[in-house]
């Protein structure tokens, strides 16, 4: 059996600091993989002694990775524990390590945005702004200090939590615990991403299916509105009362599709992209293809 290898606290601190730059080389093909590999370098140097093993480990961590930059820390912690076990002779293969990373990054990404972007940052920003509006210089200073204390403290604590939990995950390799965790995390990740498709993917087909003229009084008569600010106020009041902005009720192809299944177009495009990925089509090629199709369809009046 290989000699047991362990990361020191100094190694983990170096990884924690490097993880701050996880988006430093963000790219459209593998996204945060460069920053992830950069963060893992202290562990790779500690755990693997030969040039070949280090190169293999670095290549292993250059695979696709993307999640909220702050909640990547618990995934880093679990991965460090798995790399420790692997370097010590436990049969942890590349698929297991990558599976844990991919399985965890989806669910955690859904937690990071509402926690940090929509809760912590607005609260701190409101506190700092209230001080700054009174001319108090402590406003921006307080925001800078508190924000960095919270995010750096969270990253360190969750990295250590993942590191300690990861070691327990690998205790029962023969019982399939790691496979169960990977499968469960993957299912949860798919569920979260599937629920967000309708929010992230927006498609609108513009061809007009029907154009019906409304009865008089059902729409705003712009020619009869008073001039100036009074006309604007009257138009807003009429719109709030339910009057249409135009004398025509226009129904587009997208309106019909949304009436059938809302978000169907975005779902179909997402499934198409997943199928192309399975066919080994490069993400860069897919992105460029979507740009070209979108521009051509817009010029033709289809989208």
Describe the structure.
This protein folds into two domains: 9-200, no CATH class; 208-299, no CATH class. Helices cover 66% and strands 4% of the residues. The termini are far apart. With 303 residues, it is mainly alpha-helical. It has eleven helices and two strands; from the N terminus they run αααααααβαβααα. The model is unreliable at 170-175 (pLDDT under 50).
Distance between the ends = 62 Å
What is the radius of gyration computed over CA atoms, rounded to a whole number of angstroms? 27 Å
Judging from the principal axes of the Cα atoms, what is the shape? Answer: flat
Average pLDDT across residues? 81
Q: How much strand content do the residues show?
A: under 5%
* The number of domains: 2
Helix share of residues? 55-70%
Structure class = mainly alpha
Low-confidence stretches: 170-175
Count of β-strands: 2
| Total DSSP helices | 11
**How are the strands of the biggest sheet laid out side by side?**
1-2
Describe the sheet with the most strands.
Answer: 2 strands, antiparallel
How do the SSEs run, as a string of H and E?
Answer: HHHHHHHEHEHHH
Key phrases:
303 residues; mainly alpha
Set out the fold topology:
Elements: H1 9-18, H2 33-47, H3 51-60, H4 72-87, H5 94-133, H6 138-169, H7 177-200, E1 208-213, H8 229-240, E2 248-252, H9 253-260, H10 264-278, H11 283-299
Antiparallel strand pairs: 1-2
